[in-house]
Give the backbone structure.
Amino acid sequence: MAEKPMDLPSELQERLRAEFVREWRRDLRKSPPVKDRMKISRQPMPQRGAGERSRDFREVNRGLTAETAMTEARRCLDCARPGCVAGCPVAIDIPSFVKLIETGDFIAAAMKIKETNALPAICGRVCPQETQCETVCNLKKAAGVPVAIGNLERFVADFERNAGEVALPSIPPPTGHRVAVIGAGPAGLTAAGELAKRGHAVTIFEALHEPGGVLIYGIPEFRLPKAILKAEVDYLRRLGVEIRFNFVVGKTAAIETLREMGFEAFFIGTGAGLPNFMKIPGENLVGVYSANEYLTRVNLMRAYDFPNYDTPVFRAENAAVIGGGNVAMDGVRIARRLGARRAMIIYRRSRHEMPAREEEVAHAEEEGIEFHFLTVPIRYEGDANGRLRSMTCLRMDLGEPDASGRRRPVPVPGSEFTTPIDLAVVAIGQSPNPLLLETMPGLKIGKWGTIETDPVTMAANLPGVYAGGDIIRGGATVILAMGDARTAAASIDAYLNSSVPSRIR
């Protein structure tokens, strides 16, 4: 007669199961030697042809296949001291999720990423991995070409979503604490998710009618499809996060009113949505847009699908976008897709100083975008009806480095020239909108209109108030905003549990 199996405590069962899985994966992998891994070429990201994609708004990159993802994962060197984790602003356990891909356990890889990043499908598309985790990859140091960490992150996130197996982490019982998150951009969404996973009741207050912030109004469909963003937000809702739309904190209600409603802590992630202009003649002509307005009309309000969506946008013959960052790349590639015969980037420094991602610049070049470096507009000219007709520019030369470390552009005397344009999009940065901050007396604000926070805790100088992302940095990246939010969420959790982090004075 067979013996009855011995009942084991659930914790021990789980530990034994985990050990078995680890051993199984180790045997399955049969990890090849480092020298063999270094011989594997980086797997290219499949993409649509430039001639086809420059006429529509469907996604440019197609994503890796399961086979190419596993091959790419085999390039990882199993480093004893991986540098990639330190290069990630949200501290993803990169070696572990890459190894899970190598063994074919894609769902487990997605869950591993989500331990610290609730928006992997977004980050896999828009995060500048080449200047963060990939730049400190030990394979890059050894062989010159890093593991394609961002492409792998995108792959597993997409695989999980398409498989319909988006699992939720275990969430502790409700703590009874209520937290208000102001802004549904990448910082706000991240903070909300982290706090919900700690058992707190979280409500996001969003001024627009859709969640996402810059992810939905600033990044075009061909880089970040709206369906991807919706799926990531739905995941946060399943964690228990509530989102209230058309709610402008500072106008609909002040933070002090929210305190009276029972909210005990606040995370401010309102970004930097106030556009900067050059203050040159002609900026008030019809046809001169800020990048914020142009991108919002096209991305959030679907002007590219007019008249199915009833927000029109001017379709230019000759378009010029002023700036050299990712926003400028998005703007000029949109103008091209909307029919511009000639779509130009006007940038006052050289290509070497451009802050845009190299991939976006390369895609723009393939799509026929003109680049005019060392050039700056000095005025716009219009017709009798006040419509933009041309732009006068100066050639520049590079002088000594400025505070940013980049060489300062200086005008070349007598180099003026005029070119015909009927659309100008100014993409030279943005500042925080002062509406909310003006309703918070005593809040410590920096000279650029950003909130001053403790760099360790992200706490502001008002009790229970924390902030992160562009509202404290000015213009920055999505992943840096998310890193700030994770730090702030941990600090808010400590604050709510009476272990109050020190605030800046």
